[in-house]
Structures are given as C-alpha cells and as structure tokens.
Design brief:
2 strands; Farnesyl Diphosphate Synthase; Isoprenoid_synthase_dom_sf; Terpene_cyclase-like_2; mainly alpha; EC 4.2.3.-; two-stranded antiparallel ribbon; metal-binding
C-alpha cells in the first residue's frame, strides 16, 4: 500500500525528530494523558455484530484442552483471563457449528501465544536469532501440515507453540478444499515472516514513518488467514478467480486496514505502558508533531475513509444472474471480511486485553489512560 497521498497533501510531511530523541520526546508528551475514544463500531454502521451461541460449551472444552498445551501456566492464565478468544471466535464466525468453533478458537489461542513470544515483553523480544529460528520451525509446521504430503507429527523437542499448532492445522485442513488449503498455507507464511520484520522495526533506534508502519502492518497482520477460515467455518470453497477479483482484493485489503487502524487505537494504552511506541497514534505524534487528540482523530478519519472504500467495492463484485449459491458464498466471504474489523472491535470492548471494563461507558466510549504504569 502506498502512503496516503491525500493525507500527506493535506497535513504535510514533516521531517522526523532526531532518532534517539524521538522515542523520549513522544513518551514525555503523551505520558499521563487521557483521551475519550468514541464507539469504533459506530464508524462501520452497516456491518452488524452477531455471536455464535455455544460460547460457554466451547469454553469448557478449551479449559480441558489448555491443560494439554505445553505453554507456561502463567501465560495460559493471563490469556484465559484477559483474552476470551472463544468470544472472539464467536463474533468472527457467528454461524459456524459448535464442532468447527473449537479448532477455530484453538487457532486464535495459538496466534496470541505465538505472537506474544516475539512481541514486546516476550522471551524473544530482543533475540533476533531466536526469533528467526522460531519462525523457521513454525514455517516448517505449516508446510508439514498444509503441504502436498501432510505430516502431522511435530519434531521431537519442538517448542510448545509449534507442537500445539500441528493438531490445530490438521483439524482445519480436514474441513478445507484444496484451493483453500493452499491459500491458507501461503497466508500463514506471510504472517509468520511479517512478525520477524516487525521485530526489526521495534529494535531500531528511530521510530518508523507512520505510513510505512501502516503499510507493513496491513501487509503482515495475521487477520487474512482468519478471513480464509470462513470457508472452513461455513463449508464452502471460494473459486480462486473470485478471490483474486479486483473488487474482492479491495474488500480484503480495506477490511485488513480497518482492523489494523481500530486495533492501533484500542491497543494504544496497553502498548504505551510496555514501551511499544510503534503505534500509528504515537507515530503521528512523533513524525508530524501532532497532539495526542489530533493523532487519534487522524486514525478515526482513516477508519471512516477505508470503510467507505470497502462499501463502494462491493458493488463491483462479479455477482451471478442465475447462481444464487455462488452469490451466497460470496456474500458470506464478504461478511467474514467485515467481521474481522467489527469482531476485533466488539471483542476488545468485551474483554480486558487492552483496557479494563470500567474504562468503557454505556455509549461504548473508552477512556484510554496513558499512565506509564497501571494505576
């Protein structure tokens, strides 16, 4: 994605602050501030949120499954308490059956466990060689399970997040057609390799250009495999020519961007408190010398803009005049794209991964607090 030329023309393209000072400067300017963020879901009004009804039953199965996963107990407890990834699955795939909901939930547990190993505060945060080895082992798992000659047996001594991934991919592959499997394999590789690139950016002295950061996050974020999983969830296979149609590519791209944008705002407090300043809000503050409120408003404006682009693209899809099954599969795929954005927002308001429930009011406005430590 190229930088947003409209915004650059309107708001300018100021030179970045000197490298070493840019991080200290933005922390000093933002620390201790609070900002009331409007209901993100209200910015995507035509896309409703629904829930799969078997959340409690699947949560019981997840509790039993977690006992078998070789991940540190304190990590399991943290994610179980703050993440509620069964809820996230339920809002991503509200019409799937209960039996499909379990591996879809397990996948989301895997992606958060795995990403947190490398993200700020994880064991591999500053270990470049360790990160590359982890990515290599995970890429091998993807090829083992989703390649032409599947092998679902993890190598002896595999790290816990790799070992747990083999049976998850086995179960997901069993419900996918060959075209979907290959697409899923390629998308997982893109995600895994993208996480390693993001680590390089976090370790650099200077903060990145916000538009370059937005491009990298949109290219490498892990939501695209979750879009493809709609074909597993709803038991259909989208023809590859439809997936590559310019309108469908635009919808996927815009929903990915929307998911990145809303997550940048809703995760701002959490990331700021752990010193992760590679967030569009803080990057706009540093690069364009904006206030916190102006930077948040810019991201909100981008959400509105990319939502409109996505809605406009739907009219250009290759609708059939006679094949209603084809049309319904395409509608479901598009709804799945929408739900990556709305579902992420809905889940963020109903768990405590990014902020406390008491920070959200009855209008679903959230009061973000950029205190350096949790009050």
């Amino acid at each position: 994605m190229a930088p947003d030329i409209d915004y650059l023309a309107k708001h300018g393209h100021a030179d970045a602050i000197e490298p070493i000072d840019s991080r200290k400067n933005v922390v000093k300017r933002a620390a201790g501030q609070r900002i009331l963020v409007p209901d993100i879901l209200s910015l995507m009004p035509a896309w409703p949120s629904e829930l799969q009804p078997d959340i409690d039953a699947v949560n019981e199965e997840i509790d039993e499954w977690l006992k078998t996963v070789k991940v540190a107990e304190h990590k399991k407890a943290k994610h179980r308490a703050r993440g509620n990834y069964t809820l996230l699955t339920a809002v991503y795939y509200p019409h799937c059956t209960r039996d499909k909901m379990l591996p879809l939930t397990q996948f989301l547990y895997w992606i958060f466990f795995w990403d947190d190993e490398i993200d700020t505060g994880g064991e591999l945060t500053e270990d470049k060689e360790g990160t590359l080895q982890c990515c290599k082992e995970t890429n091998q798992c993807v090829d083992d399970c989703l390649g032409p000659n599947p092998n679902y047996e993890p190598p002896a001594g595999s790290r816990g997040t790799v070992e747990m991934f083999y049976p998850i991919l086995r179960d997901l592959r069993a419900g996918m057609g060959p075209v979907t499997v290959e697409r899923f394999r390629s998308e997982l590789h893109d995600y895994i390799n993208g996480v390693a690139k993001q680590q390089d950016v976090r370790q650099a002295e200077d903060l990145p250009n916000p538009w370059e950061h937005f491009q990298m996050r949109s290219d490498d974020v892990g939501v695209i495999p979750s879009i493809t999983q709609n074909e597993y969830a709803m038991q259909f296979e989208l023809p590859e020519w439809v997936r590559r149609h310019e309108a469908m590519e635009s919808i996927i791209q815009e929903c990915t961007r929307l998911t990145v944008l809303l997550n940048e705002i809703l995760s701002l407090q959490k990331e700021f408190r752990v010193g992760q300043l590679e967030n569009l809000v803080t990057l706009f503050m540093a690069h364009d010398n904006m206030s916190l409120h102006s930077a948040v408003n810019r991201v909100l404006d981008l959400i509105r803009k990319h939502y409109d682009i996505c809605v406009e693209a739907e009219a250009r899809l290759p609708w059939s005049d006679s094949d209603e099954k084809f049309n319904e599969d395409m509608r479901e795929y598009v709804r799945g794209c929408h739900r990556l954005a709305t579902g992420t927002a809905y889940w963020s308001y109903h768990c405590e991964r990014y902020f406390k429930h008491i920070q959200v009011n009855e209008k679903r406005e959230v009061l973000l607090d950029l205190a350096l430590i949790e009050p």
